[in-house]
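Re: weekly structure request thread

Next one in the queue (281 aa):
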Amino acid sequence: MMTQRGWLAGLSVFLSMGSALEIQAERQVTQPRLVEAPVVATTNQQVQNSATAAQDASAQAREASPVSAQKAPTSAIPHPNLIPECILAPQPESAYPDVGLGWKLLWYIPNRLIDFVDIFRLRLRFGPGLAANARVTDYGSFYFGKYCSVYAGLPGPRNPYYARLPLGVECLNGVVIGGVDATDDTPYGPAYGLTEVDVGLHLLVVGAEFGVDPLEIADFLSGLLMFDLKHDDYPRPRSPEPATTSGVSAGTAKGLFQVALKPAEFDDLIARLDYLHTNVQ
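Done, posted below.
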């Protein structure tokens, strides 16, 4: 009897242990394994890094694409008439590197001859037109008329150009009163010096013009002492040149009158007179 009872008790204990093992196994199956969490986190981070790298590559591709090279909006482009003003502004000393005494001595005579020629504007013009001008610097300049011609003779001050030839094409159309410029911008403008004193007349098919620039006289005299006042002696780096010029060189924001930005081209004489009426004070 005791042996039967002991056997039943042992069987009961064995069954209880089996149930406990089954319950534990079920819990292990139903509960997530904590050791897998870092693997999932690492996988998510890799996906995020891959997405970021793809976005960066896409942005670089857009920057390198021809679309980015399209022409900028007109509002972002400076008015052509202001380009000479930027070039005439004083440049930092680093823009004029010292070429050394040897080069200065080698170019001394050619530079003095060129500085002397820069003083004068003396030339004849041949081509259709009717115009007259008189100027005492940009601030006291007057012009009225229209012409488009070829010229021969001394072209006037070199700056802001690297060099100017004694033959070329010149055109100018509009009105200038007291330095207020109502002429059209043109790639063939006279490119007057800021301090130039000048008179000119064009009648039908022939014209003449004579001018002297006092600042160029000072540059020539200082050059005799090997001091380059206008930083135009050779050899020198080639600076950007204006794409267009007009009746004055200082730009519409400088001068005797503070004036509004002028259009690159006027529709007619009425538009020019309206502009002058608004800005000549």
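The first helix runs from residue 2 to 30. The first strand starts at residue 120 and ends at 136.
Next request, please.
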